[in-house]
Design brief:
Number of strands: 3
Shape: flat
Strand content: 15-25%
Length: 77
């Protein structure tokens, strides 16, 4: 909650709050600190200790707030 509008923010949130990666909310732990606006985020790192079949060790679990078409378009593909 120490952020304010004088800081340039990127649309990436790292909040390991235990919320579900697909249906959760990255703002659940500090709802009054939504500098981009309510529910506004692009990428959310929900965990740094996930597991993915075929990958040894822990991995980051990230999600994109949008459709596959929007993700592809945002990457210029």
């Amino acid at each position: 909650c120490d952020l304010n509008s004088s800081i340039t923010l990127t649309p990436w949130i790292a909040d390991w709050n235990g919320e579900n990666l697909y249906s959760g909310n990255p703002w659940s732990t500090c709802t009054s600190c939504q500098e981009w606006g309510a529910g506004v985020w692009t990428f959310w790192q929900a965990s740094d200790s996930g597991r993915i079949k075929g990958i040894t060790g822990k991995v980051d679990l990230d999600t994109f707030n949008g459709t596959l078409a929007q993700l592809v378009a945002s990457q210029g593909l």
